[in-house]
Every structure is written in C-alpha cells, then in structure tokens.
Amino acid sequence: MKYKKIEKLLNVSETEMSSDNSVISEKIENFFNIINVDDEQRIDEIKLKALETYKELLDSGFSCDPKHASNFLEVAAKMLEIALDAEKTKIRRKIENKRIKLEEEKLKLMQKKIELEERNQGNYLEVNESGIYVDRNELLKKLLDK
After folding, report:
1. Phi and psi for 131 in degrees, rounded to 5?
2. Rounded Cα distance, 129 and 132, in Å
3. Which of 7, 50, 61, 103 could staple 72 via S-S, CB 3.0–4.6 A?
C-alpha cells in the first residue's frame, strides 16, 4: 500500500516488492537505462544542433562585412561552447554510471567477504547437498586441542 507509486512506475505487484529483491533491482536498473538512453539522445541532439549552428554562423561571419563579422563569430564561439558542454555532460554521466556500478560490485564483494568471515569464525563445517566441507586449518586446530 505504501509503495503504490513505485509499483506503478516499475509495473510490479506488492507481493513481488516484498518477496524477491533481484526482480525489483533488475526492473529499477532497466528503468534507469531507459532514462539514460533518452537523455543521451537529447544531449546528442543539442550537440549536433549547436555544431550545425556554429558552422552556419562561421560561414556567415567570414562572408559578411568585417566590421559585423565579430558579432557572428562571437555567437559561433558560444555555440561551440554549448556543444563542448553537452559532450562533457554525456561523458560525466557515463563515468558516474560506471562508478555506481563499481560501488555496487564492491558492496557485493564486501558482503560475501563478511559472510565468509562469519562462517569461518566459529563454524569450520559446512554441510551442503553434495557433502561436508571442512576447513583444514580449523580441523587441525580442533584435533590438536583434544
């Protein structure tokens, strides 16, 4: 009930929200990928339009009277600046997305490390369907202590 907006946005039910986190995280990631693609397309459009306008103004500046050329060239320089800023923004976003993914991977690895450390602190036996796994060093310590 309290997650209605999220449920509508991601198109998931309340039972999915409470049961399986992997499904939710996958849908969130897909949602943000769609947003990033749309933003990148808009940034590319801005950059291309600015470069196109820059070329037109540059041609106009060189073909007109020299006393008026500075106005055209000044605006052309601004258009080039806009194109560069758009490209910088796109690159920054890509870097930020990569950094976020690396942070997520780092967090997952830290969680696995903590789980392994907790498992190895007291329990040197692990029972699975395929058999029993024993830490050799812990087994030797237990045998030598007895």
Report:
1. 150, -165
2. 8
3. 61
